[in-house]
Write a structure and sequence with these properties.
Layout (H helix, E strand, L loop, with lengths): L24 H25 L9 H14 L3 H14 L6 H29 L13 H14 L8 H20 L3 H9 L13 H19 L1 H10 L1 H20 L4 E2 L2 E2 H24 L6 H7 L1 H21 L7 H30 L10
């Protein structure tokens, strides 16, 4: 997606210097860091879980799992927030028809294609979803695909796309609330995820409510971009403290196996606050160092949606190969090393595949891989 707007739509009226620019490069870089978090979460999780899912066998392994989950889990919250920002800063200038046609072409169509591919691989090659596909015929395979599409069950990461599509459906309502300055309702929506915890892996409306909070915050922040940046700059230290404190609690919760109080997943509630705080700190840092950021990070941001679709399969196949070679281990240092290797492989291979698809499909590539 080209992050372009009409010239001079962003004016500097506040102490925080906001450029009159036609290209929001910081959002490309922002998306880059968001997708890196997601790849990292999957890379170290795969490296750990392909060895064991019983972390009680080794306290060091359990601590490593606690730290990696705390740092990288729920990066999709930042993705949802960025989607809200993009709507207010750029897409809002288009008609609703153009907005939804774009989402069908560049989100829904590649998602359907990926669901066909992942379901086929799960049936014929290896397990990449939540349940084993063993139909007796191709008709059974098509039935499995039709079930996977609305539920996001084609693979362990595709659950987010039906939620994202629902966020797009809710966009006019959230935009109206922002325009009418309905702060009470917006506040309830933003805080609801503290109670309405996300559910994984199955589809749940609670998950929609969970991500609607971050998406709504993004729409509001984008509609008040200058004031939002100024607010973040003045409260960066406070946001950093929230991130560090919540991170400490999360590591502790993982160590003592604490997750829920009644129906509320406390650990997901804390993750919501942690990742929102991190999102604020990241945006402030990116805005300040934008000119020093190397151009290749822009490409990662531009390819982020395609990378999201592609990288899990690459990670699964690579870690399966590592397991066959007897290279997986419960040694924490080896896990860190292998997780890093898996991370780099998933990132670079996903970018290579995306580049090839873009060359082959030209302007239609976004309907194939989303980039």
């Amino acid at each position: 997606m080209d992050l372009k707007v009409k010239p001079n739509t962003v004016k500097n009226e506040l102490p925080f210097e906001v450029k009159s620019h036609t290209f929001f490069r910081e959002l490309h870089i922002y998306r880059c860091f968001a997708i890196l978090l997601i790849i990292a979460a999957h890379s170290w999780s795969l490296t750990l879980f392909f060895y064991t899912d019983d972390f009680s066998i080794d306290p060091q392994l359990k601590l490593l799992h606690s730290v990696t989950e705390t740092l990288f889990h729920d990066g999709t919250i930042i993705f949802a927030l960025i989607s809200g920002l993009l709507f207010s800063l750029i897409l809002k200038n288009n008609s609703w028809r153009k907005f939804y046609v774009s989402k069908v072409k560049h989100v829904f169509l590649p998602y359907v294609l990926m669901t066909f591919i992942y379901t086929l691989i799960q049936w014929q090659v290896t397990m990449v979803g939540f349940y084993e596909i063993s139909p007796d015929s191709w008709l059974g395979y098509l039935n499995a695909v039709m079930l996977n599409i609305p539920l996001g069950m084609g693979s362990f990461h595709l659950w987010y796309i039906p939620i994202l599509l629902l966020l797009f459906v809710a966009t006019p309502a959230i935009n109206q609330l922002v325009e009418k300055k309905s702060f009470v309702v917006l506040g309830i929506i933003a805080l609801a995820p503290v109670i309405a915890s996300r559910v994984w892996p199955q589809f749940s409306w609670l998950t929609f409510v969970y991500f609607l909070g971050a998406y709504s915050i993004g729409i509001y922040a984008g509609a008040n971009y200058q004031r939002s940046l100024d607010f973040i700059q003045r409260h960066t230290l406070f946001l950093l403290m929230i991130f560090l404190i919540t991170s400490g609690f999360l590591i502790f919760f993982y160590q003592i196996n604490f997750e829920k109080i009644a129906f509320v997943s406390v650990i997901e509630s804390v993750f919501y606050l942690q990742k929102l705080a991190l999102a604020g700190v990241l945006l402030n840092c990116i805005y300040k160092i934008e000119k020093c950021v190397p151009p290749w990070l822009d490409k990662i941001g531009n390819y982020s949606f395609s990378i999201y679709f592609i990288h899990p399969l690459l990670g699964i196949l690579f870690v399966e190969w590592l397991k066959e070679q007897g290279m997986l281990s419960n040694n924490p240092w080896i896990v860190v090393l292998l997780g890093t290797v898996v991370f780099l492989y998933c990132l670079l291979a996903s970018m290579l595949i995306t580049t090839i698809v873009k060359k082959a499909c030209g302007k239609y590539s976004r309907m194939v891989v989303g980039a």
